[in-house]
Structures are given as structure tokens and as C-alpha cells.
Amino acid sequence: MRKLISYLLLTAALAGAVYQWHTKKDQLRAAFSVARTRLFPCSSPVTYSIGKIDPGYPVSPEELAAALKEAETAWENQARRNLFEFRRENGDVAVNLVYDKRQASLDRLKSLGISTDHTLDSYKTLKARFDQLSARVDREEADFKGIMYRYKQREAAYNAEIRRLNERGTATRTEASRADTARRKLSMQFDGIKMIEKALNADVDTLNALGTTLNQLIVQLNINVAQYNRAGSAIGRFEEGLYRVNNGRQSIELYKYTDREQLVSLLAHELGHALGLDHVPGADSLMYPVNKGGKPRLSGQDIAELNRACRIN
């Protein structure tokens, strides 16, 4: 009887293991890959694949793969070993470009010829633009509110006159002409209002883009000022990129970059995290928390962190 029970328990355990493997094999494989990297760092290449590229990013999968290849070279040239390997699908790490307010704000400013970088001077320049535009938008919004109020009054008077004529069932030629003139004036005024509203919305969009970018610089540069808590501006702490492990699955998500050099530098930084590297304090380092852009070059602190993570003597 005991043998039968043991046999049944073993069978159930094996069946459970087979079920878990078939239903969660991708998750289990991913978890095994993470564990292997942590237990035996740099012993085999970390494989990666292109995940999703959100609409809004003017980059093809082939261009992103080329940028990734350049990013991995920065580490491999120093380590003198194959640390990463591209796979068309099912790599250990999925690389995604996620389009949200962070990149949208940069694109908006870029379209207006406003450049940004990670410096205090850039913050001061953007802040001056924000303050100037904020004052103008406040005036424009107040003027627009007055225009809309007067338009609504005229519209209400016109609708009341039309109701009166409809209730009476007839209108003189003078009344009909007067009503038609009022209708055409309202239509012209409405077209003008839409043009004013479009210009106002464009200014508001620019103001929100400036606010979002300023808020990120405040965090990145550790500036001791309050964030711009304006409706439409993203506040809080934003990452430009993020390496994460979720349910055993590894991913690199990029949220914003200004040019290809910064993209490559950001990819190299996140690939460093995928190897197990932590941030280092040197501002000229690839693993510094703020991506300064430029061609990725390893500092002495980067090399020391690489040696620590890969257990290179």
C-alpha cells in the first residue's frame, strides 16, 4: 500500500512538473537564464532580441539592432570576451522602445528648434522659455474665455430668435434676412474661434513639453526646486531607460533619446545592468545614473564595476 501511495505521489509530482513546464516554459527558461547570469556571470553571452518599437520612433528594427551591436562592443572590447549575442527572437532580454510623454516632449521641442541636454545651462534656458510662454498662455486663456463668453451670448440670442420665429410659424422678409445675417456672422466667428483655439492649444502643448522636460532635468540634476505641477505636464521621477526582471523575464525599455549617439550610450548602460553591473558615481562613466550621451566610453569606474560583476581578476 505504501509503495502504491509513493508511486501515485511521484506520478502526480512528475505530472505537475510536466504541466508547469508546458504552461510556463518561457517563464521558466527566462528565470533559469537570470539565475545562470547571476551564479556564473559573463560565462556565456546574454542573448537579446528586438521586442516592440512603438509608433513615433523613427527607427527600424535593423537600425536598433545596429545600435545594440555598437553598444555591446563597448563592453566586449574591454572584457575581451563575447558578452552579448543578438537573436532574432526568444533572446534572454527583450529590447523595447516605449513612446510616452517623455519622448513626445522632446519631439515637440525639437520640432520647434529647441535643443536640450543634461546640463544646468540647458535647464536655465528652458526655464526662461517656460516662464515667458506660461505668462503668454495665461493671457491667451483669459482672452479666449472672454471671446467664448461673448460668442455664447450671441449664439443664445440667435437661437432664441429662431425659436420665436418657429413658434410663430412665419417670418417677414426683414426678419428672415436679419436671422440669416446673424447665422453667417456666428459661423465666421466660430471659424475664427477655432483658429484661436488651435494656436492656443499649440502653445499649451509646447508649455507642457517644456514642463515635462524641466521636471526630468530637476530630478536628474538634483536641483533643489519644486517640479512644474501643471496639468498636462508629466511630473515625478522618469527613467530614460530601464532594465527590469518581471516574472523571470528580462527586458530593456527605452523611453527617450535625442539622437543616435545618446541611443547607443543608453543601450550600453542598460546592457551593463543586464550583465549585473550597478551604477557608479563618476559623471563621466557609462554606468553613471544620468545618460550624458556621446560615444560610449568606459571610465576606470566602469571597468572596475565590470571586473567585479564578471569576477575578472
Written account of the structure:
With 313 residues, this protein is α/β, with parallel strands linked by helices. Mean pLDDT is 88; it is low at 17-21. It has seven helices and five strands. The protein has helices at 2-39, 61-79, 101-111, 120-168, 173-220, 260-275, 300-310, and strands at residues 46-53, 84-86, 93-97, 241-246, 249-254. It has two domains: 39-98 and 254-313, Collagenase (Catalytic Domain); 115-220. The protein has a five-stranded mixed sheet with strand order 2-1-3-5-4.
Helix-strand blueprint:
Layout: H1 2-39, E1 46-53, H2 61-79, E2 84-86, E3 93-97, H3 101-111, H4 120-168, H5 173-220, E4 241-246, E5 249-254, H6 260-275, H7 300-310
CATH topology of the largest domain: Collagenase (Catalytic Domain)
How are strands sequenced across the largest beta sheet?
2-1-3-5-4
Percent of sequence in beta strands:
5-15%
Report, as a whole number of angstroms, the end-to-end distance: 58 Å
Describe the main β-sheet briefly: 5 strands, mixed
Instruction: Outline the low-pLDDT stretches.
Output: 17-21
The CATH class of the largest domain is Alpha Beta
Query: What sequence of helices (H) and strands (E) makes up the elements?
Result: HEHEEHHHEEHH
What is the typical, i.e. mean, pLDDT? 88
Report helical residue fraction: 55-70%
CATH superfamily of the largest domain: Collagenase (Catalytic Domain)
What is the total domain count?
Answer: 2
Taken from the alpha-carbon principal axes, the silhouette is elongated
Going by helix content, strand content and strand pairing, the class is alpha/beta
Number of strands: 5
CATH architecture of the largest domain: 3-Layer(aba) Sandwich
